[in-house]
Specification:
- It is a single chain.
- The chain has 70 residues and is mainly α.
- It has a domain at 11-36.
- Helix content is 59%, strand content 0%.
- It has helices spanning 11-36, 45-55, 63-66.
- The N and C termini lie far apart (67 Å).
Length: 70
């Protein structure tokens, strides 16, 4: 005989499904932005954010570049 109680979805599964929905929405937004972007434009907006972060670090003094031990 079947149980009368409903099976409940765990929060872990709900969270995984939410991440999938968000990822699909972001992918669709990127796809739409690429469609509406002018043909000659080659500079994506994401690179400017990365470049701004890279400018804050002085690589000449960084231990990985100078070979110093930390």
């Amino acid at each position: 005989m079947a149980s009368s109680s409903k099976k409940r979805t765990t929060f872990a599964k709900l969270n995984r499904e939410q991440k999938v929905r968000e990822k699909r929405a972001e992918k669709n937004a990127r796809r739409e932005a690429r469609k509406t972007e002018p043909v000659g434009s080659t500079a994506p907006a994401e690179e400017t954010v990365v470049n701004d972060l890279d400018n804050e670090i002085d690589l000449d003094k960084h231990p990985a570049v100078t070979g110093e031990q930390i």
